[in-house]
Amino acid sequence: MKILYLHGWQSVPGGVKPTFLVQHGHEVINPKLPDDDFAEAVRIAQAEFDTHQPDVVVGSSRGGAVAMNINSGDARLVLLCPAWKKWGTARTVRASTVILHSRADDVIPFADSEELVRNSGLPEYTLMEVGNDHRLADPESLEMMLEACAADGDEPKDEIDEITTEEAALEFDWEGLCYTAALKWIKVTKDRSWTLVHGTVFSGELDKRIEHAWCERGEVRWTPFLGPLH
Question: Whole-prediction pTM value?
């Protein structure tokens, strides 16, 4: 998958988060954005988007505000503690957006992301609480970012948006939507004992290993709505 990663204020390309995405097999475009000129940062980001046409745009902090202020077409937005109230004019995001934010963030208030979700008229689960600080560089946050990026792009969005309970998630037909399914399960259960996992499993039907996503809890390696893994 091709990802445009937009770093935060006083940050640089090649940090922990874009490196994590690269280590998991994604092609990451990670341009240097100026700290002192937001309009120029937006111009650079737009040029990189237009050139590379990424599947996903990840924006961290000020980079999240940059991501919100470019024309990103149908690309999925993954915003990490977005600083949208400090920079830019965009005040809403579209339905395919995922926002990750720590309630313990002492740089960008968690309430700012709650307000962004309300402004956009999106379900509460658009915003996922994760991490222990503004950086979101802990293992759980990195894994959540990875899953948000890898979520399937051809899912029936309207039907999935209506899934807000465990029962509804268990009853839904998730065939071919493993990344979206794993991410949705974490959202609807709000059970922090589940861990999102991105790896490969053996497909008997295809007689080879394939990329897959699932949830683990303790010694249980099983995604409830997809069945046991092999």
Answer: 0.75
Structure tokens at 104: 């313990």
Query: Any idea of the CA torsion for 181, 186, 188, 189, to the nearest 10 degrees?
Result: 130
Tell which residue, 149, 170, 173, 172, has the closest CA to residue 18: 149
pLDDT in tens, 210-220: 767 788 887 76
Cross-strand pairs, 222 = 228
Provide the strand spans (E) within the chain.
2-6, 27-29, 56-60, 76-80, 98-101, 127-129, 195-203, 208-217, 220-223, 227-228
d(C-alpha 4, C-alpha 37), whole Å: 19
The mean per-residue pLDDT over the stretch 182-201 comes to 77
Report helix angle 16-23 to 139-150, nearest 10: 60
Distance from chain centroid for Cα 193: 19
Say which CATH class 2-150 falls into. alpha beta
Sheet holding 227-228, edge to edge: 195-203, 208-217, 220-223, 227-228
d(CA 180, CA 145) in angstroms, rounded, equals: 13
Specify the residue for token string 């998630």: 169
Asked if 94 and 77 count as a contact pair (C-beta separation under 8 A), the reply is yes
| Exposure string over 84-97, b if 16+ CB within 10 A, otherwise e | beebbebeebeebb
**Chain region(s) in the chain for CATH 3.40.50.1820:** 2-150
* Contact between residue 100 and residue 130 where contact means Cβ atoms under 8 Å apart: yes
